[in-house]
Predict the structure of Flagellar biosynthesis protein FlhG.
Amino acid sequence: MGDQASSLRQLLQQQQPSQKQRMGDSQTPTCSIAVLSGKGGVGKTNVSVNLGIALTELNYSVLLVDMDIGMGNIDAMVGTYSTMSMADLLRGSGDVSTLIQPSLYGIDIIAGGSALAEELSPDEDVVQLALGELEERFSKYDFVLFDLGAGISKDRVPVLTSVDRIIGVTVPEPPALTDLYSALKWVHHYEPMIPIQLIVNKAVSEKEGLAAAERIQAVAKRFLQKEVELLGVIREDPAVVSSVKAQVPFVCRLPKAMASQAVRGMARKLTLQPSAEEYRPSFIQRLSQRWGGKKRA
């Protein structure tokens, strides 16, 4: 299994064009997306990785940022072991020039790293300096995806309220749906106008996935007066499990699998979404304002 994975990575590395060749319309503002879940174990990070890769297959440039600080594993999932991470950046010890790392699968990543919670309460000046250095780099991508840790907390509010849209990932079980709704309600409290989309993962059938989505949509509309769009359903697929074991993203390892086709459909939907207005401040500019305390948090 390890030899097969290694061979596939080598083949992809030979075939993969540079990130600069994969840019979409360079005049279109970067689309920033936060991917969250109400609880762990729903496959959120795996979805983020494969969705990002599916976007690169459509010739869009993608940066995937691991915001599960201290517990992140995106770099391992794409076979890239970073020496610098978001944890280093927030401590004021990161070098932005080496923070963004290419992967074998077309997406670039920023690793989450490992750090204790108390290490991640950086001085505001450190944060503002780091954001300034990231501004130009982020603007070179068509999509920047932020993979957040499970659940919700106040320290994530600045990121969640600065992105262009949010994707919530859940499984059909009632506890997971309840936890995701709680997370979406929290976000809605701080930024009621932000578009929210939904992915139902690990559904036994399309019918089960659609029913789960309808429950989230119904309560969001009733209690928040919020429309939640279904981005798609990913059914239970042995290809996902075997690909995780092989440490190769399933859209690359088994491109014809049900899960791969579902994720590619979601990527196509994302490319059809309205672009961020050119006059609107960039993600980094909005985040800088919120982290600086200019907006309630």
